[in-house]
UniProtKB/TrEMBL annotation:
It comes from Halovulum marinum. Binds directly to 16S ribosomal RNA. This is Small ribosomal subunit protein bS20. It holds the Pfam family Ribosomal_S20p. One of its GO terms (molecular function) is small ribosomal subunit rRNA binding. Gene3D superfamilies: Ribosomal protein S20. PANTHER family: 30S RIBOSOMAL PROTEIN S20 (PTHR33398), SMALL RIBOSOMAL SUBUNIT PROTEIN BS20C (PTHR33398:SF1). It comes from the Bacteria. GO terms for cellular component: small ribosomal subunit. InterPro entries: Ribosomal_bS20, Ribosomal_bS20_sf. Belongs to the bacterial ribosomal protein bS20 family.
Length: 88
């Protein structure tokens, strides 16, 4: 257990940041899940709209430090390819 006042403060800050990061990650995953559900239903318009809403949310998680930039780009690319495949 932390003994010094500075160490105790870092424990408090870490707990606070963990909750914030967890909620942001959960929000991003919700948007991704909506895209995947639309893809599964086969509705291309709904999937395109869901992807359009998910893209900024995924990139926002990059600026907040939840994801690496390349990881976010890969996720968006793969989702886009799956949405595009519905029309084909």
């Amino acid at each position: 257990m932390a003994n010094s006042p500075g160490a105790k403060k870092r424990v408090r800050q870490l707990a606070r940041r963990t909750m914030i990061n967890k909620s942001r990650r959960s929000r991003m995953r919700t948007f991704i899940r909506r895209v995947e559900e639309a893809i599964a239903s086969g509705d291309s318009d709904k999937a395109r709209d869901a992807l359009k809403n998910a893209q900024p949310e995924i990139m926002r998680s990059v600026t907040k430090g939840i994801l690496h930039k390349n990881t976010a780009s890969r996720k968006i690319s793969r989702l886009s390819a799956r949405v595009k495949a519905i029309n084909a």
